């Protein structure tokens, strides 16, 4: 269970004083076992207005709903690193982010020892129709957090390290007015800024969250819970 509710509430109130209105695109706690138990032939859950569209839940169990860990409730999303390939889950939401709105992501992550994770907000590049990432956060180099925007050729390394064996909330805020992407994490009851990157993807209609078990030993797992994505209108 999350232990620092007052800190989180204070931060959310501060954001609300900056932005005029928020509209929820996604709020997923992975407790809906009926929804996640219904898979299509390609491993995707059935889409619904409340739960969005989630995948890929294939027979290899690389992506699954697990009772092993949970930030709140009983279940979380578990992703296991497979041999020789990246393992990803995708959460899609509709409608895609409009050109007038900013976006905020909150997601809780549990990183066991020796495991690494990746998360990214992505969408469709309107001129080309290609799926691209807009903002990404990963761990590597013994848990060091690294960030990237859609135009970066290389990861920007930071001095902050993601703890292990602990549920930790991380945040990504894309502010179109300021033309930046702010990455944050809560460590020891204090919200820290991981880093800031330029927002370089105004032509991308953001419509998805990608979560993965980043390069780490095959069989290593990471857990995700309490996903909240909002549009923010100034």
Note down, in words, how this protein is organized.
- It is a single chain.
- The protein is mostly beta strands and 234 residues long.
- A hairpin with a 5-residue loop joins strand 7 and strand 8.
- 37% of the residues are buried.
- What order do the SSEs take from the amino end to the carboxyl end, as H and E? HEHEEEEEEEEEEEEEE
Alpha-carbon distance between the two ends? 32 Å
Discrete helix count: 2
Helix content: under 10%
Q: Structural class, from secondary structure content?
A: mainly beta
**Residue windows where pLDDT falls under 50 for at least 5 positions:** 1-20
Mean pLDDT comes to: 86
Major sheet size, sense and barrel closure:
8 strands, antiparallel
Tertiary shape: globular
Oligomeric status = single chain
Q: Compute the CA-based radius of gyration.
A: 17 Å
Strand content: over 45%
Work out the number of β strands. 15
Which key phrases capture this entry?
single chain; 234 residues; mainly beta; eight-stranded antiparallel sheet; seven-stranded antiparallel sheet; 2 helices; 15 strands; 8% helix; globular
Give a short overview.
This protein is mostly beta strands. It contains two helices and 15 strands.
List the helices and strands and how they pair.
Blueprint: H1 5-18, E1 21-28, H2 33-36, E2 53-55, E3 63-66, E4 76-80, E5 87-92, E6 102-110, E7 117-125, E8 131-140, E9 144-149, E10 156-161, E11 167-175, E12 180-187, E13 190-198, E14 204-213, E15 221-233
Antiparallel strand pairs: 1-15, 2-5, 3-4, 4-15, 5-14, 6-11, 6-15, 7-8, 7-14, 8-9, 9-10, 11-12, 12-13
């Amino acid at each position: 269970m999350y232990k620092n509710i007052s800190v989180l509430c204070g931060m959310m109130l501060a954001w609300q004083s900056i932005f005029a209105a928020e509209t929820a695109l996604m709020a997923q706690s992975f407790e809906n076992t009926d929804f996640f138990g219904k898979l299509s032939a390609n491993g995707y859950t059935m889409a619904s207005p409340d739960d969005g569209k989630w995948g890929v839940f294939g027979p290899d169990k690389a992506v699954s709903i697990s009772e092993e860990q949970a930030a709140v409730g009983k279940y979380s999303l578990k992703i296991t690193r497979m041999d020789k390939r990246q393992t990803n889950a995708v959460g899609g939401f509709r409608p895609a982010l409009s050109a007038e709105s900013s976006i905020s992501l909150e997601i809780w992550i549990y990183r066991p020892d020796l495991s690494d994770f990746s998360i990214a907000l992505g969408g469709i590049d309107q001129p080309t129709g290609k799926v691209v990432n807009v903002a990404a956060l990963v761990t590597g180099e013994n848990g060091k957090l690294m960030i990237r925007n859609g135009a970066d050729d290389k990861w920007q390394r930071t001095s902050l390290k993601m703890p292990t064996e602990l549920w930790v909330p991380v945040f990504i805020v894309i502010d179109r007015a300021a033309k930046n992407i702010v990455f944050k994490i809560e460590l020891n009851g204090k919200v820290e800024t991981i880093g800031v990157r330029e927002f370089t993807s105004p032509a991308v209609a953001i419509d998805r969250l990608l979560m993965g078990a980043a390069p780490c030993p095959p069989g290593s797992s990471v857990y995700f819970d309490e996903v909240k994505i909002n549009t923010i209108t100034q």
